[in-house]
Amino acid sequence: MFSEVVIVGSGFSGLGQALALREAGITDVVMLEKAPRGVGGTWRDNTYPGCACDIPSHMYSLSTDPNPDWSRSYSPQPEIHDYLERLADRHDLRRLIRFSTEMTGATWDEESRTWTVHTTTGEYRCRFLVSGMGALHLPSKPTLPGAERFRGETFHSAEWRHDVDLRGKRVAVVGTGASAIQFVPQIAPLVSQLTLFQRTPAWVLPKGDHPIGTWRKRLFEKAPLIQKAYRGALYAGLESRAIGFMSRPELLRPAEWIARKHIERSISDPALVDRLTPRYSLGCKRVLVSNDYYPALARPNVDVVASGIAEVTEHGVVDHDGVEHPADVIIYGTGFHVTDSMDGLEITGRDGRTLRSAWAEHGMRTHYGITVTDFPNLFFLLGPNTGLGHNSVVFMIECQARYVAQAISAVHGYGCSGLDVRAEVMQRSDAAVMQRLEKGIWTRGGCTSWYLDAAGNNRTIWPGFTLRYWAETRRFRPEDYEFFGRSSDFAVPTTGAADSTGRAPVPAPV
């Protein structure tokens, strides 16, 4: 099957990209989705108790499709998933999706100038391949000695077992990241004993969460400009936090003070307060928000173990002090494969070079996290160094989706069959990001985090203002790319071939 564009994934990235392409007049599009049904990506898959967004609701939607009906200032998972389902229906995107189709790899063919996308249901051919998989889709499970001996139930928070009744059970939770601080307060009142194994404490700030009244919903519905202004105010507030993260860590000290007081208000045990207080600067790791996490840890049936895990036995978990903590269920709240999320895919570009080998040699170099030299017509959404610690990644997705649509339109406008980012452009772009990261709290804050790759380089965070990213990507620059081939050289199968209507012309390079 041939399509002009194949998009992998149907979460915020995939749906946003399909809409940006349609706006540019590019309609021969297929979306591949590994799930058997339903759109939404990580917001479809993560259904653990208490799952919610830690970015204000009105910043967590496409700017072109605002939602006036959020029930709370921080949206719970079912509402975000419902928003994405309604987005797909409203724009008739489901007809583009091939469900139960997981990409396993892709191969560039220089002769035909096409990608062959390998999937669990067969092969797809396309001229342009867009990865909208994101980084939060492959659960990361630690390798613990003796884990295979455990006789109880085990599962990861991203694969929550709703058929496992936790009431009255002894539960061991491994990990204290963004997922754990949401589900631990939900299950703590149900279980007989909860043992939380913490490797490194997180900075947790109070969450300004509250119901959104009916009057405000109706106001936003009737006056979308007011909602737009409200969204702009939220954006500005979140964006201002980047100043402290980038170069002025002293500006984060008031937030650290608030976080310390947040612990002390809920917990009276000095030893537990000490265990939960980070020894690194706020912002070095992902900053979390919660109002009920610390009260849950103060419950008499909850114990926080910070000495690490030595092994798992048939009936529990042994810490490094030699104490065995009995457990009927083990839940991993250990996050996702982020910097290595693409390692399981065999993506082969020019001259038989794989993406894995290219990134292993020089690190995950990209141009704006979107394109990679020697991998023509391949685009990444939320690729390396485009994640955020201070604002909404949906904003970044919209910048990238617009950029990709402009790039494809440029190929059409020049009558070419493809483009490849120039090596010197990618190297310069990557070096600029690495240089800014060196000055930021993520490098100098005194921690290690999931932001880092195996070599210790931060390949996750965009270092600075999202406004800067918007400014740098708002206009596709043809001079950054090598264009190749003529449309007349491009062999398109007669079945399912793309037509040429609606292709936006592109201005000459400047």
UniProtKB/TrEMBL annotation:
It comes from the Bacteria. InterPro entries: FAD-bind_Monooxygenase_sf (IPR051209), FAD/NAD-bd_sf (IPR036188). Gene3D superfamilies: FAD/NAD(P)-binding domain (3.50.50.60). Signal peptide: none annotated. This is Cation diffusion facilitator CzcD-associated flavoprotein CzcO. It comes from Actinomycetospora corticicola.
